[in-house]
Amino acid sequence: KINLEFYIDIHAHSTMMNGFMYGNIFEDEERFQRQAVFPKLLCQNAEDFSYSSTSFNRDAVKAGTGRRFLGGLLNDTSYCYTLEVSFYSYVLGGTASAVPYTEEAYMKLGRNVARTFLDYYRLNSLVEGPLAPTPKTR
Hints:
- The chain has one domain: 3-Layer(aba) Sandwich (Aminopeptidase), CATH 3.40.630.
- Helix 2 (37-45) crosses helix 4.
- The mean pLDDT is 87.
- The radius of gyration is 15 Å and the shape is globular.
- The chain is 33% helix and 22% strand.
- 25% of the residues are buried.
- The longest helix is centred in the C-terminal third of the chain and has 21 residues, at 103-123.
- It has helices at residues 29-35, 37-45, 66-73, 103-123, and strands spanning 6-13, 19-24, 55-57, 79-86, 89-91, 98-100.
- It is an alpha/beta fold.
- It has a 4-stranded mixed β-sheet, with helices on one face.
- The active site is at residue 84.
């Protein structure tokens, strides 16, 4: 009875670098394309987020996860993701050197997720223009 637009389950990943997302696959191509918008925007906002490591799947092993379960339960305007972030480090684009995650780096990623929500709702004309000047702190 409640219209839920986003569900994001947050996990730490023990082997992969950077932040990335898992999303669901849908038969409806338009819905699948719409679901890719949020991770693409997050990649523009966060230097430690990797869209190329983001994966959309129906892995049977993950059938009981919040992302998979709610993705099949909620209406087709809801988007369910798992945000995975490395325990250890991230690699900046164009370099090969790993940057260790710190508490501040995790907080920065959280702020960039919030900025991405704002960008998403601006893109969909649900929020008008700039609310206040916000520095782009990739």
